[in-house]
Fold:
Amino acid sequence: MNNKKRIIGIAQLTLTAVVALGFTGHAQARNHHSPDKIVVVGPADLPELARVTGQAMMLHDTMDGRTILYIEQNHGARLAIFDVTDPAHVKAEGSAQVDAPASFDFVSSLGGDAVLVRFRNGQGEAVLNLRKVKTPTLNMTQGLNFQGSMEFWGDNVLIADKQPSLQSYISNTDYRVVDISDPLRPNSVTDIKQVLEKITNYDTGTTFLLAPDGLYLIRRPPVEEEFRSREQQMRHTP
Structure:
């Protein structure tokens, strides 16, 4: 009889423990996000600087492994800066006055610490210097006034359609070749007008432009050298 009571007592204790674990599990489920669920975070749950209307934004990876989010605010007057390396703990890093002449869009990286931006009022382009993460500066650069498409060739060459994209389909295209080996000081190399056709040999990195006054070549010597090295290795490989 005593053994039966002892078994019943153990069974009751076990049932109580299971129920307790069940309540604990439900409580933990309420307090922790399921791994297969998304989490939407609104402005009210972010730093105050994130509650200001912005016109454009860009992510930038720093040399020390952080991810910085820049948001253009006040129609180009300033950049709000956030450290978003850990999305669960977004940190405001302050803001920087850049006093651009108009709202702008982030177009493309020109290297580790430089970004090409384009003004929305048709005033051309400029270079945003991000070398100092918390105090970016805007470099107004002459000779980068184009409104068409752009192509980046490696690290040093930018070729830009100087006309709106639509015109390139209905007329000959004028191109501007820009040296961006120093991304903070892009240098317009030459303009090639009324290009009839453009083809590229990707092995040597050479682009051929056919214009009314003849043929133009845009060469990339480092790519040519790399191609020659590969060819020599293949010839000497048994």
